[in-house]
Specification:
With about 250 residues, the protein is an alpha/beta fold. The chain contains three helices and eleven strands, in the order βββββββααββββα. The radius of gyration is 22 Å and the shape is globular. It starts with about 20 loop residues before the first strand and ends with a helix. About 30% of the residues are buried.
Length: about 250
Amino acid sequence: MSLKAHFVSDLPDVSCVCERLQQLNLSFNLFTHVPQQVWELKQLKVLKMRSNPLEELPANISRLKNLHTLVLSFCKITQLPAELFSLPCLQYLDVSYNLLRSLSSDIGTLRSLRSLNVEGNQLVCVPAALLSVCVSELRLSGNYTHALLWSENSRNSPQTLLHTAAHTLARTLAAHGQTHLPPAAQTILQSAGVCEACSGPMFGPGLQLLVPVCSVFGLQVLPVMFRCCSPVCVRTFRRHTHTHQRNTTEED
């Protein structure tokens, strides 16, 4: 079904085809939100809403389990909901020319993703989790990814004492075995994330490290943001990365 360029802001009644409709094109209209009826289209595979004044994509997007193509280019979206990254069949995602300033590391859960278009946004880099996805096409031009901005956007504030102490305790227990801990300490240790540099435990948001990765996704250089668990991890990972990049350059 195509209602492209009809300049409408409401979707007509589609209840008679909600069990069969697989493609819906609402591009070049006046929708300020995704119509509620869309969430009832259980068989929907293609949803296009290019060039609408949309400011957000609601969490209900997770209800479209069969969706494999989503086009939301030239809208006003500032953030992608976490529920988007739970779609098991999503292969093509176009959110170009919006107002995105970052991508969530949850994008790494889109194992079916093959094409990602984020051109014309306000991105400085992509999350390290994207490297684990078999994307064959990544379009990133028109963002704030110039090398002159890398140092400015990878500055860190000191970690909190709680997160530093939890990291030290977790490392100690891993090396010397478990001991009896107060419930509060156990709760903190169980909240650990995973460091994207050393794969060890990470507490809190971690420390940012922007690394230029060469020859990936068809791009010569891709700025990738890693979340590291500690200052030591940052230094070690930076040293290892610089050595690898130098060796790669010499081989080329």
